[in-house]
Amino acid sequence: MKGFTHFISGMAVASFFEQAVHMASQESSFILCLGGLFGILPDTLDFKLAKYFYKSDFEIKPDPNKLDAREIANGIAQAVNKAIKTGKGSVQLHTMQLASNRWRSYQLRFDTKRSEICVDIGPEVDTGQIPFDGTELTDPEKAHARVKVNCEFYQQFDKVSNIAIMTGPCFEFEKRKDGKMEIVFLPWHRQWSHSFTLGMLVAFIVGIITYFTVPEGANTGYAAGYYWLPRWSLYPLIILFGSMVHIIEDSTGFMGNNLFYPFTKKRTNGLGFMSASEGIPNFLFVWTAVICIIFNLDRLRWNPTGTIEASIANPLSFWFWFYIVPVAIMIFFFIKGKREKEIKAKENGTSEKTVDFDGPQAVESETDASII
Amino acid sequence: MEQLFEIFLHPEYLNLIYFCIIGILASAIISFLPALHIYNVIGIFMLFVLNFQNSMESMELVSLCIGMIVGYSMLNTVPATYFGPGDESMSYYILPSADWVNKGRGYEGVILTGIGSLTGIIALALLAPLFVHILPTLKAITSPHMFWIIGAVIVYSIMSEWPKGLSQSPDCWTNFKEGWYYLGIGLLLFFASGLLGFIVMSKTLVKPQFAFQSITPVFVGLFAMPWLITNIINIGKIPHQHEAESVEMDWNLIARGTFGGFLGGFFAAFVPIVTAGVGGLMAGHATAQRDGRLFVMSYGTCKTVYYVGSFLLFFIPGLNLARGGLACIINPVSMTFGYKEYFIFVGLMLFAAGISFLLLMPFTKLCIKIIETIPFQWVSIIALCIIIPAVIYYTGEGGAFILLVSTGLGLVPVLFQARRMNLMGVLLLPVCLNMAGYGYYIVKFLGLL
């Protein structure tokens, strides 16, 4: 899922705590933002920290002046061969920057049927990944290469990786019990940062700090009804549920999480309901969060005299018109889109599964005015 | 319906059409001044117009403003694309549009944005009857929570900036430092802009009679000046611009672009201080937009809904939400508006959008002619020669000093590849903390009290 989806979902979860809503409206507290902060934090930890400290066995830095697809494919095969021998091998592919807004692209695919690594040198592209005409390699020997390896690949998705701008992807090869070679895309992603254990650990540490530092405040009169939980406990709970909602949302996609790191060693596969970058599923979560926040803010409004009427006079009507109807429309268009994709895939004879992880290119190629 | 037609076709209201057209034409002239923001110009324009206050009715003034804001929101795409943006909302759009200009497709980009603007106005008009019922409720629910909603916008803006750099060193720490270098610059920029915002808002250096324009030198410095300076030192040449006869769009793309853009624009219009750039970024992420055409088109919707929507909110009966500079400027001279005035507003808005869209094509062609005959750098030099004396004239030496400081800050993203949106800290940070009630303590801590 997109970072924004996690962010707003974290805030929506926080808005279910009536004490937190009270603190926000009456005590100028930013506590609801804490849910958003920890909602997006797992990806922040990965892309701003973990990715820098993952050491690959091999690094491939193609020379833009001596382009050779075979050389790249052989480099990847080295990592595969290491995995055949030792059980594990990894490779980091680097991009080729030619000028501030010019890159040479190349594509990588693993052919499961033939056990081949396929590399194609692509055209030069700009930072928006728009190709420059006439920049394709003319020599087919140098532009395309297939290198056979002595193992059978296992990959959940038939994904073509386009390596073009910013940072290139990393692959890990891991020998499975059945002898097949599993291809793990971005091995540093969704590991320890995307585990319930980390969420619990952070919540525990914050809980200790807040236990000694957060005073109970004036929880008397009308406010006393709100504080059935001690005030200090709100912070760790919001942090815990904020990070949990991220992991749960990510599990609905193709790439799963390492749920109980370090007790579980591997990243599981996701449920595969939707792709991380698909518009409708992302918006469905965002809309659900928005509606929950609005409903909770109204439901938990400050009303000490009991005379302030709810702005949402009829909750049933509110949920029907603002949630059920839009969700039904979204589901309709989502299914329609899926069917159209399936028909297209059948016509083209390609895989009908669109796989799109929130990999480095998805997060880095964001439209930003100052990138050039 | 009959009543509605009667209102619009009644000769009594022809004067409103007349003022609306004057507004559109004025906006065309204002739009042509590169890198200037409508609210800066409109404030000065209003000082002139208010001399005729006795001979002008409130609704005529409103019509003039509708023409100006709708016209500006559509026509400013042209100079922003070719010469540089006037504010953060436009900066957000500039990267892809500059890219289109470099490929000789600037005209197509402008028209796509124009289509987006038009669909945004149509969406606003279609939803106008619903707004009357929904928005007062939404305002009642969110009002006590607005400070943390702006806080959430700040947190997301900061958190959603990802490290840049190639990470090709064998040393992990070198890669880490490279990635965090850009993030660190962005963070520093955000807080430095926030500090500038606190200083400007609590102790303005601008002449008292132009205090309502105290933020002008800041915005000109942060957003307009860096673009003009970059244009002047840029050795590149604008390639020949192809005047396309059609644009590559389908209804699916139009619907998606309008939807995403509307969300961003509406959010920016409803939440104080949030601009179309910030709203557009969030809506783009919420709806997972990727296509370049979709972005350009949806940006047109976003900025138009932001500019026009924030003005429209002021006229919604039972809401009267003063968002955006224009609503604040006309606030002292406006009357009480009812349903009739509100729907006249909607009608005039549609009329202005239609006329502005028709003007967009010749306006763009004229702009292309200018950049193809006059050296690109000279346009920016002329713009600088207009802007700097104008700012100094209206805001004095104090304003000139603010302009200098904010220009320095505005150049940081250009020099260090940081996100330009961080500059919005100038408004986001002080306003958020002031709304939460912490602003006083910060101002006191800074010794500004």
Question: Can you put this structure into words, describing what you see?
Answer:
- The complex is a heterodimer of chains A (372) and B (449).
- Chain A contains ten helices and ten strands.
- Chain A is of the alpha+beta class.
- Chain A folds into two domains: 223 residues, no CATH class; 128 residues, no CATH class.
- In chain A, the strands form two sheets. In chain A, strands 1-2-9-10-7 form a five-stranded mixed β-sheet, with helices on one face. In chain A, strands 3, 4, 5, 6 and 8 form a five-stranded antiparallel β-sheet that branches.
- In chain A, α1 runs antiparallel to α3.
- Chain A starts with a helix and ends in an 8-residue tail after the last helix.
- The C terminus of chain A is likely disordered.
- By secondary structure, chain B is mainly α.
- Chain B has one domain.
- Chain B has 18 helices and no strands.
- Chain B is globular.
- The N and C termini of chain B lie far apart (57 Å).
- The mean pLDDT of chain B is 85.
- Chains A and B meet through α1, α3 and α8 of A and α6, α7, α8, α9 and α12 of B.
